[in-house]
Fold:
Amino acid sequence: MTISDFELQDQARRVLNAIAFTPFEQCQPLNREFENISPRPGIYAIRHRMDGLLYIGKTKSLRGRFSGGHKAFLWAWLDKYNDEDVRIAMQLISHWKNPALLLELEAIILRATEPPYNVQIPTEM
Structure:
């Protein structure tokens, strides 16, 4: 199945709206087990109550991604954010079986938002 650039941009816009504009109180609070997070694939954001998007990523298993730890939590701790002010917003992407498309979707969202905790990898010369 091929997807047009327009469809990809539209999907990226919908995912970004979901992870950026879901009310903070409806995002998943941090805990040790993350049992309320789906094990399905998706795009996620680490959000701060006041500072907004801190990190955006993609994963094959949302629950698995967080139950093993996440570098954004360490960075939030180093920045002295209160754990009650940091939550996870997510959007399931179950119908996207192609990893390259999920990667491109994530890249579009990252270019649009430039969250501070996403590491910028320089392009090779």
